[in-house]
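Record type: monomer structure entry
Structure origin: computed from sequence
Chain ID: A
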Amino acid sequence: MNKHWWQEAVVYQVYPRSFQDTNDDGIGDLQGIIQHLDYIKNLGATVIWLNPIYRSPNDDNGYDIADYQAIMPEFGTMADFKQLLDAVHAHGMKLMMDLVVNHTSDEHRWFVEAKQSKTSPYHDYYIWRDAPAGQTPTNWRSEFGGSAWQYVPEVGQYYLHIFSKKQPDLNWQNPAVRQDIFSMMDWWCEQGIDGFRMDVINLISKPDTFVDDPTLADEAHGSSLAMVANGPHVHDYLKAMHQQVLSQHDLITVGETPAASTEDAINYTGFDRDELQMVFQFEHMGLDDDPVMGKWTDKKVPLLALKQTLSKWQTALNGRAWNSLYWNNHDQARAVSRFGNDAPEYRVLSAKMLANCLHNMQGTPYIYQGEELGMTNVAFDQISDYRDLDTLNAYHELVDLQHTVDDKTWIIHLGIWDMKSHLAGL
């Protein structure tokens, strides 16, 4: 394999909302990141990955994008972004943007027009199916709970949303969708950014035929995400993306790929594939899942299973593709609390142990803000203190509807799962 700069990079993930507030509105901003570039560089980071900073109604903390080419006002302006980009480059670092193109916000102008009429040119930008009102096209469940279908009376159809109902899935089979997305990506590259982290990128190709999810037959909970993962045309779409955009710039790319195996990862990132450079896989993230509670559990990760899983990915990709390395991020619990021991006498030791393990494997390490400090999870006293959509939906299903756990137990579990750590503060 040829050697590339991104194989020697260290990526530091910044969740802008919680990183640094410079105007006392309680929300982090781009100027706050600029103020701490010396700190990030001194850690040894060479790339900064920003969670979404685009204009959004924030139903899902910015992963519901209303305008791909505008900055969220509470974070700043496009002038602030250009100042940040220039400052990052002046520090000898690179900037990677979050790319969310499996879905948009339902407040994006494409969807606003799409739901007005079946004859709108934007109607086919999304995935619609006919079914009588009250009878969804399939039994699919959203990743955030409830049906993955939402009825729109104006057109008498349901649209698909694998995540929130305010996040309608884009129809990548439509060439106009692909072209608009590629043009938007190219626009950001022309601004001078250095890469993309691609949100749930292996979900963009939906099945040619929609059928019921057989795994939900006897379950009151669960997600149908696997029904759309690694779809039939995903590699065609990514090869086109690479040809039209990625290959035209010197970029770092990593795709979030739930339900991906090592063979899937090689197909996405193999050195001869001309698609992506790395993927975020989730096999080690699922080792402590509970059959009933899912990830909302205080189970400990079995050490042997963890070692076997990490070794499996190191061995399978060696010489064929490149690993991404991570313990936590904005969607996962704090590493020290989850994989180590966050008791005062063990916190620092755990953090150092996890760091040594991560940085001594082959791959590009991704460090979540605060991980370098050995940050632990936070637990508030009541559910109303939380703002993360995934947390709130899981609470509604497991406590309010299914009564799987009581409120007190749930709050204990929230201490296990930090989720969107802007609520913890830095």
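Annotation 1: The chain is about 30% helix and 10% strand.
Annotation 2: The chain has one domain: 5-104+175-378.
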